[in-house]
């Protein structure tokens, strides 16, 4: 294990803009070689590499090779918050922090970065952005508008988080753990969870109604045809009952799935139910 | 444009969208809402793609792309579902259900293909472990680019295969579909809406007072439905 002599803090390097852009771009592919042995370890080394070229001796120097070897070992983190780790590790390597300290940091950081990222992004920002787009759909927005709502809202948060992570990691170096106490990271998830609940409450009935509308219109036309032929008698009001019935039934399905939580995934239930429906419609009912 | 003519553009779209699921850049254009709408747009009917995408998005709330967990590939699934639904301009009864069913099967197969790719990445990394441990930046970069390239190929192949196999099967099933559009879509949308509601509850119920937010939101949503 190579130990590099610590450079005085006052002599800390500033990352050139070109290097920062290269690191940021590579961070977007940090999971590109994800595997069960070193997880995103290779990706961390890949993202750090442009910064490590600034080590004494450049790409041919021993510090560069030692740092590349160290950084390509096992590492795990939420992909967006890996930016914090990459910023901090770049700073530590360029400041010449001892390898043992860097290794200890790499061991300690994955747990908090994973937990915070999962709560904030996968269980928070992603469902919130998605619900906002579904609400736009439920209110009648066209495909372009729905996609723009989702992609713009989501990626403002996504890219801001990565940019902030890289900056805060570089600024604090191995003392970056304090940044995880940032109010947005600590108190953001409960606020986002409430927003998701509210948005879901508004959006889901509207989405169900819009999805059923083409079928309802088709049914109205069909029944008008039957009525003209003397087989009618069903009112449009009865057709309108399809939407509330679907909302009530969806609530019942949701209650059953919540009760089954952890034992079966909803999408698998859907797969089985739709396969059964298709079999019934095509084979048995013919 | 029919699906046979659109197969190559759709496979390319599947490659780009499949890459976003995990490898690059995770900007969530791999969400089914996006993939299905773009798939439908390639076939010439983005609206139909969007409808399939919304149903798949509701179902996808159930699974989050968390780390080492094996989760469905909703990206390529969205492209397949959106394109298959858009390929039926007359919107026959069962078209949406079969498109979603094909997409779910693609998502399931995609999950396995991502697992296989992760194993393959591990094999490639193990073979070059000595070079990586010696600090070879070239090998680190090659491993990263190889993983990205393989994921791109995975997405394209999965999309092309799903469409090539799924389209004739779905067409044959549509010919014999006997249930009405209302009954078929009612079942599909009820399941999708219920799955999304359950997933939101699972995600948020540990936060205090979320049920009140959900209830007041639902009241607002129903009020909008009634009043408009």
Overall description:
The complex is a heterodimer of chains A (286) and B (228). With 286 residues, chain A is an all-alpha fold. Chain A has helices at 17-27, 41-52, 62-71, 82-94, 99-108, 110-138, 143-172, 183-228, 236-240, 242-259, 266-284. By secondary structure, chain B is mostly helical. Chain B is built from nine helices and no strands. In chain B, α1 (7-22) packs antiparallel against α4 (74-86), α1 (7-22) crosses α7 (137-175) and α4 runs antiparallel to α5. The longest helix of chain B has 39 residues, at 137-175. Chain B is globular and about 70 Å long. Chains A and B meet through α2, α3, α6, α7 and α8 of A and α2, α3, α5, α7 and α8 of B.
Helix and strand topology:
The complex is a heterodimer of chains A (about 290) and B (about 230).
Chain A: H1 17-27, H2 41-52, H3 62-71, H4 82-94, H5 99-108, H6 110-138, H7 143-172, H8 183-228, H9 236-240, H10 242-259, H11 266-284
Chain B: H1 7-22, H2 32-43, H3 46-60, H4 74-86, H5 95-127, H6 129-133, H7 137-175, H8 181-204, H9 210-227
């Amino acid at each position: 294990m190579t130990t590099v002599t610590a450079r005085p803090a006052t002599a800390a390097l500033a990352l050139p803009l070109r290097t920062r852009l290269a690191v940021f771009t590579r961070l977007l592919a940090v999971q590109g070689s994800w595997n069960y042995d070193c997880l995103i370890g290779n990706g961390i080394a890949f993202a750090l590499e442009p910064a490590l070229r600034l080590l004494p001796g450049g790409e041919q120097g021993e510090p560069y090779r030692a740092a590349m070897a160290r950084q390509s070992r096992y590492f795990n983190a939420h992909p967006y918050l890996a930016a914090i780790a990459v910023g901090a590790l770049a700073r530590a390597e360029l400041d010449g922090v001892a390898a043992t300290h860097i290794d200890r940091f790499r061991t300690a950081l994955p747990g908090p970065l994973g937990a915070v990222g999962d709560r904030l992004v996968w269980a928070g920002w992603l469902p919130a952005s998605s619900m906002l787009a579904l609400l736009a759909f439920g209110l009648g927005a066209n495909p372009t508008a729905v996609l723009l709502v989702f992609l713009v809202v989501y990626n403002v948060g996504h890219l801001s988080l990565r940019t902030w992570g890289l900056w805060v990691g570089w600024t604090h170096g191995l003392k970056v753990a304090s940044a995880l106490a940032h109010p947005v990271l600590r108190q953001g998830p409960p606020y986002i969870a409430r927003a998701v609940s509210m948005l879901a409450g508004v959006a889901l009935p509207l989405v169900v109604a819009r999805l059923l509308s083409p079928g309802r219109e088709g049914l109205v036309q069909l029944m008008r045809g039957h009525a003209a032929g003397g087989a009618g008698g069903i009112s449009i009001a009865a057709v309108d009952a399809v939407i509330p019935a679907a909302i009530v039934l969806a609530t019942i399905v949701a209650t059953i799935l919540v009760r089954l939580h952890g034992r079966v995934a909803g999408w698998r239930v859907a797969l089985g139910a739709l396969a059964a429906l298709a079999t019934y419609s095509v084979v048995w009912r013919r | 444009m029919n699906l046979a003519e659109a197969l190559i553009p759709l496979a390319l779209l599947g490659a780009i969208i499949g890459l976003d699921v995990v490898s690059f850049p995770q900007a969530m254009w791999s969400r089914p809402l996006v993939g299905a709408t773009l798939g439908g747009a390639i076939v010439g009917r983005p609206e139909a793609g969007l409808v399939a995408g919304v149903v798949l998005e509701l179902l996808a709330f159930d699974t989050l792309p968390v780390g080492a967990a094996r989760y469905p590939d909703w990206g390529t699934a969205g492209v397949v579902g959106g394109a298959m639904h858009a390929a039926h301009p007359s919107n026959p009864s069962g078209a949406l259900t079969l498109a979603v069913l094909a997409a779910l099967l693609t998502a399931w197969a995609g999950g396995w293909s991502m697992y296989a790719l992760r194993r393959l990445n591990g094999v490639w990394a193990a073979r070059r472990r000595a070079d990586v441990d010696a600090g070879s930046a070239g090998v680190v970069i090659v491993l990263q680019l190889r993983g990205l390239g393989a994921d791109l190929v995975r997405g394209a192949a999965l999309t092309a295969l799903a469409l090539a196999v799924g389209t004739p099967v779905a067409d044959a099933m549509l010919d014999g579909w006997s249930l009405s559009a209302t009954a078929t879509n009612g079942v599909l949308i009820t399941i999708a809406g219920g799955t999304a509601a359950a997933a939101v509850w699972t995600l948020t119920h540990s936060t205090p007072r979320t049920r009140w937010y959900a209830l007041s939101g639902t009241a607002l949503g129903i009020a909008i439905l009634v009043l408009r």
